[in-house]
Design goal:
This protein has one domain (31-142): OB fold (Dihydrolipoamide Acetyltransferase, E2P). It starts with a helix and ends in a 10-residue tail after the last strand. By secondary structure, it is α/β, with parallel strands linked by helices. The chain has 4 helices and 6 strands. It has a 5-stranded mixed barrel.
Length: 152
């Protein structure tokens, strides 16, 4: 009986050590990249964590990400949406962004997200690219005259 208890204690101890080590290992670092460059070479950043800055605006079905400097054209689809995971609006920045979106306004947002540059189209509006939000870095409301809806 003691032999089984000793083995059980050793196994539990090893499990605790392994779990602790996996939690303390640093996660994948975000690659800082301009939004327009990211959309120009999506295969380079596909499925990676990126840190970028862009405008965010909600529509009836989803939240769009865009930059006035590199919008979709007749020959190139640069549409993108962002998935806001459960609890995203529990932080101070999340609450600020939530208020802006609820009032049908746009925001200039710096964020970290997993970028999906292939595998689309995504969501009900069939965007070409998709971000899955990991962390908000900054949120700034944009005056109405500065922002135009993603479809214009």
């Amino acid at each position: 009986m003691k032999k089984h208890q000793t083995w059980l204690i050793m196994i539990l101890l090893m499990l605790c050590i392994c779990t602790s080590a996996s939690r303390s290992a640093p996660g994948e670092q975000a690659t800082s990249v301009s939004y327009c460059h990211l959309l120009s070479v999506p295969q380079r950043y596909d499925k990676g964590i990126v840190a970028t800055k862009a405008m965010i605006q909600s529509s009836e079905h989803e939240v769009h990400v865009f930059d006035l400097e590199c919008r979709s054209t007749a020959t190139e689809d640069r549409s993108a949406s962002i998935e806001l995971r459960n609890g995203w609006n529990s932080t101070k920045l999340g609450k600020k962004l939530s208020k802006i979106l609820r009032h049908d306004r746009s925001a200039r947002v710096a964020f970290e997200a997993v970028f999906h540059g292939s595998g689309g189209p995504y969501g009900p509006e069939k965007t070409r690219f998709r971000f899955v939000l990991q962390r908000l870095i900054s949120v700034e409301e944009i005056q109405r005259q500065e922002a135009r809806p993603p479809s214009s």
